Amino acid sequence: MASRKKRLIKQIDGLIKQAEKHKEKIETEKGEKDTTPAYWAGEKERYEKQAEERAEILKKLKNKR
User: What is the pTM of this model?
Assistant: First the structure.
């Protein structure tokens, strides 16, 4: 179980970092054909949603014991 918790924590951290990178891109970069601020906003939301889902799974694992 410990390895699963570790993996989930790493995944959550990675997803949050990706969301932050996309937030910076929205604020600083102009974007071109398929990489527009709207695209980055959508990606940011998806990463945040995935991080929340993984946090819920981790919470359930911690409550199980």
Answer: 0.81
Tell which residue, 7, 35, 5, has the closest CA to residue 21.
Answer: 35
Is residue 13 within 8 A of residue 58, CB to CB? The reply is no
C-beta separation of 11 from 54 below 8 A: yes
Q: CB neighbours (10 Å) of residue 55?
A: 16
39-51 burial by CB neighbour count: b if 16+ within 10 A, else e? ebeebbeebbebb
State the pLDDT at residue 1: 59
Euclidean distance between CA atoms 57 and 6, whole angstroms: 12
Residue type, 52: E
How far is residue 44's CA from residue 33's CA, in Å, rounded to a whole number?
A: 18
